[in-house]
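Take a careful look at the sequence and tokenised backbone pasted below. I need to know what the token row says about the fold.
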Amino acid sequence: MQIENQSVTPSIGLGCVTFGREVDDLTAFGLMDHAYSKGIRFFDTASSYSAGGSEIIIGKWLKLNSSIAPDMTIATKISPPYSAGSIRASVKKSLNNLGVSSLDLVLFHDWDNSIKDPEVLETIDNLTREGSIKVSGCSNFTAAQLKYALLKQDSAGHSRFKYIQNLHNYAVSMVDDQLIKVCNRYNVKLIIYSPLGAGFLTGKHKKQVVLGSRFDLVPAHRQIYFNDSAGHRLDILLDTARMHQLKPEDLGMAWVMNQPSISIVLVGARNFQHIDQAFSSLNDRTCNALKVM
């Protein structure tokens, strides 16, 4: 695989899907404090994460840190099926959970055919004009789905999506050349999540699923990674890491951080080391190893 040189690496954001599930309030507060100290200013959550619990924890942290809260960008998501009523209800709930007067970034969590209802994109535009939402975007859309939404927004005179957030790592990806072309053409910034495949690329699940891990707590994730294609990619990563005396997680993270066209890489964390590792992964040793992958 040819590695392109890039002068600017993506920013690192904190993924908060585990807050209220694997991570309790106090642990989450510590993680957000540490993330902020490392220069992270982007937190990602969703109305569906822990039934709103993730948003509530972030909201508590923002209240405790009111002096720095304006420095932060908090992204959240609305779940399908979409309608004018469901969107307004979800936005209202997220505003209340986060304790803010305006949502920095709201993403459609997944593609759903209900987005074809003209009222759906119109409602997002109205909420933006009203000030309840600053910027909107989408998550888990293909290039064709993103382009469809953007063209509908343009034809109706609505504000466009500014961000798309998709799965992207060395083993499994929802980012392809077509998506990047659409993003570049319409000035949509690309956020990627699960850079280590929920721990899959560490190799720790190769023999069996580790108890208490994401794959243990959310078994549906297994079908995404436990297949021949992802397994083959994992073997390449593990062999290359072994050859260069690197940790697989450092090499996997470095691969993502060295990819062009990415604006933000979301890192999930249960401890400070997970955050620190994202910052230290891209170095001369990992870059040299990437050249042979």
About this structure: The two ends are 6 Å apart (CA to CA). Residues 59 and 100 are 8 Å apart (CA to CA). Residues 11-197+257-282 form a domain with the TIM Barrel fold (CATH 3.20.20.100). The longest strand covers residues 133-139.
